[in-house]
Amino acid sequence: MFSSDLQAILAASSARHRHLCPRQVLGARMGLAGGAALGLALPRTDKRLLTFVETDGCFADGVEAATGCTMGHRTLRLEDYGKIAAVFVDVQTERAVRVAPQLDVRERAFAFAPGEQRHYFAQLQAYQMMPDAELLSIREVVLATSVAQIVSKPIVRANCELCGEEIINEREVVQDGQVLCRGCAAGGYYG
Fold first, then answer.
1. What is the residue extent of each domain of the chain?
2. Cα–Cα distance between 24 and 77 in angstroms, integer?
3. Which one of 50, 62, 163, 175 is most buried, by most CB atoms within 10 A?
4. Following DSSP, what letter does each residue of 56-73 receive, concatenated?
């Protein structure tokens, strides 16, 4: 099926952690499934695929290894909902799919790892071989913000009128006639 590609992806992902874990496998499998659902070859070296991961950690590295999407290329975004899930967007068509594990996937793993009593190792083994339909939930979604707004224009710059720092990628906020960064406009994640 895709095991040789999957094994190469898992090797790339695990090289960052010095080990392989079930969440990396889920990320890799979800990345492959997202690309397939959109009809896109992976990994990408262009900016046609935009990916939103809903948590960070090993899972995100599996998605990155499978898709070729990275934060540095502005093709991988984090929307931290604390969920092992991702949305894959074809930037040209704006078609999007959300991929998440089936709700009972942990319990199902034991059927694909006969004789393995430990949850972690059953999941590690099973997630590599389970059919997509048994492992993943894939559904079409519509982004709440247009791709053009998300991607923005990388050369646009402004300066915050309160803190003076530069704001890139059209992320400034105009509030009471002032150009502000999001931190000054609404409070930041640090104090």
1. 3-145, 152-186
2. 17
3. 62
4. -SHHHHHHHHHH---TTT
Are 23 and 53 contacting, i.e. CB atoms less than 8 angstroms apart? no
Rounded to whole angstroms, how far apart are CA atoms 135 and 112? Answer: 11
Both tokens of 26, joined, read 């889920």
Give the CATH number of domain 3-145: 3.30.1330.130
Architecture field, domain 152-186: 2-Layer Sandwich (3.30)
Per-residue 3-state assignment (H helix, E strand, C coil) for 85-127: CEEEEECCCCCEEEEEECCCHHHHHHHHCCCCCCHHHHHHHHC
For the chain, give percent helix, strand, coil, nearest 5: 35, 20, 45
What is the rounded CA–CA span in Å between residue 156 and residue 150?
13
pLDDT, average across residues 77-81: 97
Tell me the pLDDT tens digit for each residue of 97-146.
Answer: 999 999 999 999 999 999 999 999 999 999 999 999 999 999 999 999 99
pLDDT surpassing 90 at residue 91: yes
